[in-house]
Amino acid sequence: MLVKQLSVFLENRPGTLDEALKVLKEADINMKALSLADTSEFGVMRIIADKPDEAKQAMKNAGYTSIVNEVISVELKSEVGYLAGIVKKISDAGVNIEYMYAAPSKDSEAKMLIKTDDAARAQSALGE
To answer: What CATH number corresponds to the domain at position 89?
Structure first.
């Protein structure tokens, strides 16, 4: 299933994450998943939120640069090689996986959020 993901660029200094999360809290945004990656100068906070477009506007109003894009959300089964099978199907379709991260799920043990260079083709390869 395709879901909207908000990516927010954060300055790499103490307190920045706290400030960004406060903006989302004050905008009444509920986060369902979060990933944080950094480089020496900046970080990227990626979130799946209940109201991604409102979250983007709240971040913009607070002076943050952010984008909304689509990622694939795949429910994982607790069996050896299940994720490898998903990755193989996407790879066999000629689609590049840019990054992925896990999140909790109410329907299974976990779900994997996958950013590709062609979400529609990857979703088709997965039979969704």
So the answer is: 3.30.70.260
Give which of 54, 47, 45 is closest to 26, Cα–Cα.
54
CA distance 105 to 57: 26
Instruction: Compute the mean pLDDT over every residue in the chain, rounded to the nearest whole number.
Output: 93
Residue pair 85/54 in contact (Cβ under 8 Å)? The answer is no
Residue 78 in tokens: 């607790």
> So what's the pLDDT on residue 128?
67
Query: In which residue are the tokens 């109410």 written?
Result: 106
One domain, residues 41 and 83: no
Structure pTM?
A: 0.86
